[in-house]
Specification:
single chain, about 210 residues, four-stranded antiparallel beta sheet, about 35% helix
């Protein structure tokens, strides 16, 4: 039996104040378990990004409860939220957010450097993460030398290198062509086979 890595119950999020106030989320409940690839589907403006931000410990809900690896985010201070996010959540975005002056390996390694990981083990883990996404042969390549699909694979490697329990993917294939989009989906599906890791994939329904 797999464990729930993120659990949200009756989440409500109100944005803004006064006449411009908007209820972005109303009573949303969701459970993301290890070994699962879960799709978050809906039209533009339906609150998917807001929900992803709450599940990823970037925003706090107005009401409701969110637990990440059993830890409730209720009444957490910003630094505690940041620590929980750093230790347990990996993000993949539509834009790759790679540093152009760093190699693929160094871009991945950066996620470990901010945690104070020793250089030797950080390099080894970056190589392993790139191997997982099929880019062992591109470790010394700079972003400008990589295709869009390869750059997104580097971004995925960066998201998984810290061994997070939850991967939150925010439309990671929308900037890619169909072939590369399917390839990225296969990589995420393979990552989701890990019983200790859950993947939540957000995209817009058309």
């Amino acid at each position: 039996m797999t464990e729930t890595v993120i659990d949200a119950v009756d989440v409500v999020k109100v944005l803004g104040r006064g006449p411009g106030q908007v209820q972005a989320l109303r009573g949303v409940s969701l459970a993301l378990a290890g070994g699962e690839l879960t799709l978050l589907i809906g039209p533009s403006g339906s609150g998917k990004t807001t929900l992803l931000s709450i599940l990823g410990c970037i925003l706090s809900p107005t009401s409701g409860t969110v637990r990440v690896c059993g830890q409730s985010t209720a009444q957490m201070q910003p630094e505690d939220m940041a620590r929980l996010r750093r230790d347990h959540v990996g993000f993949i975005f539509q834009s790759y957010h790679l540093f152009p002056t760093l190699t693929a390996a160094d871009n991945v390694r950066l996620a470990l450097d901010v945690r104070g990981e020793p250089s030797g083990s950080a390099i080894a883990k970056a190589r392993k993460a790139l191997a997982v996404v099929g880019l062992s042969h591109k470790m010394k390549s700079f972003p400008r030398q990589l295709s869009g699909g390869e750059q997104q694979r580097v971004a995925i490697a960066r998201a998984i290198v810290g061994n997070p329990s939850a991967i939150l993917a925010d439309e990671p294939t929308s900037a890619l062509d169909s072939e590369n989009g399917h390839a990225i989906m296969k990589v995420l599906a393979q990552i989701a086979k890990d019983q200790a890791r859950g993947v939540l994939y957000r995209f817009i329904a058309v």
